[in-house]
Amino acid sequence: MRLTIASRRSELARIQAHQVGEALQTIHPQLEIKYSFHESLGDRNQNDPLWQMPEKGVFTQDFREGLLKGEFDLVVHSWKDLAIDDDPKTEIVATLPRADARDLLLVRAGRWPEVERTGAISILTSSPRRAYNLDSFLRSALPSRLTGLNFVNVRGNVPTRLRKLFQTEVDGLIVAKAALDRLLQAKQQEFSATQTELRTALSRCRWMVLPLSENPAAPAQGALAVEIVRKRNDVRELVTPINCAETFAAAAREREILRGHGGGCHQKIGVSVLRRSFGEITSVRGLTDEGEALNNWTLRPSGPRPPKVSKESMWPLGWSDTDWFTREQIPAKPDTGTTALWVAKADALPNDWQVKSEQIVWVSGVPSWKRLARRGVWVNGCAESLGEHEPTGIETIAGSELKWQKLTHSESDTTASMPTVATYRLIPKNGKPTFSGKSYFFWRSGSSFDYALSHDPGLRQMTHFCGPGNTQRALQQRGIEPFVFLDHAQWLEEMSL
């Protein structure tokens, strides 16, 4: 049987079409695949800003018409390009496992000293969402005191945008990380020249992977959409086996949330859904057409919660209650062979360490990111406070195998996947913690739990909560199965009467 797959003509679109074709042939070896590549309205009009163009189908409507005429059997889209409303005659029946949904900031290394000197930076982007959400974040995440942040419109595919970065008097560019990853990972020889060009551009840039909690992506960003005519059950049967159900559900949920705010790719709203073993995390941030500011980072747990209690039964109500330790610096020197530092807490990076410009710095969460930025440290990304086992996803961008080193305190739980260097130790202060009348406890670290347990062994019979990641695993290793919340504030709000 022969199947014709259509997509846009850009290199990225062709790569995505080939990914779907290869997945189909893996399931159906006898299947003959033919490709049909075309330009869309959005490809033909490279002058108007995207937000000034028709909101529905600028990259997809031409292909829908071809589907209905029978010119091809299915179309592979970047799902984020599709109109938010479903079409009555066609449908999305499958997607592949999602690529990285995050955005990537590239800054020309040669222009960074000027940014530091002037406090002004100009960044290419065609997205109102990115401009709105990143205006506040970048001012505190970049290691420079910014007084001016200017977003400049740009059109074109990823290689074209990178050329414009170096051909115009701008400092930076924001792109979908999934697009750059796919271009660099393509195995076909026809894309080798572009890959060389991209690698050269990356070598001249400093980069940041922007966190979804601060900059949620366009709904379905990083996901592919396989569209067919609704009545083509024969094609549906062929395509269904390649579908990644988890990606499909997350992308559909993101589009549903945006639809609830009026829909439309021109809105200043980002929506990202992350599915983890402890539940579904949803990030919604932006500005609606009615002027309502959205800023939500929420968790729908995978299991039931215990009943709510009064605040008098909860500990701690404030972090001053956990101020049990002083920090004593341990003399430590950086490993000269380390190419990437995983910083568990901003204090774990010694003030006298000089971080090389080519060295990657990854941190536990946004608060540590901002603290290090105030110290002048360029941070490449963070684990969103989800734990050090949260994948960084930067191997392709880095272009080489990374040698990691985790910086933390001497009592930290070690991990076999990453060598650890203790840069400070925790020294208990005088005094004994008391928990009279408390039954619900939220922990920020395994070391705090151990210290509390040494003074009150009865804590094991209480109900415990924590954030995801290292603290969760530390409590589990001690025989405690905690309930997971994203942070202490959400715990207080959701568990108190």
Write the layout of secondary structure elements.
Elements: E1 2-8, H1 11-27, E2 32-38, H2 41-44, H3 61-69, E3 74-78, E4 90-94, E5 103-108, H4 112-118, E6 120-124, H5 128-141, E7 148-152, H6 158-167, E8 172-176, H7 177-185, H8 192-203, E9 205-209, E10 224-229, H9 233-239, H10 245-260, E11 268-276, E12 279-287, E13 293-301, E14 314-315, E15 325-329, E16 340-343, E17 360-363, H11 366-374, E18 381-382, H12 395-398, E19 404-409, E20 420-428, E21 440-443, H13 446-455, E22 463-466, H14 470-477, E23 483-484, H15 488-495
Parallel strand pairs: 1-2, 1-3, 6-7, 6-8, 14-21, 16-17, 16-19, 17-18, 19-20, 21-22, 22-23
Antiparallel strand pairs: 3-10, 4-10, 5-8, 5-9, 11-12, 12-13, 15-20
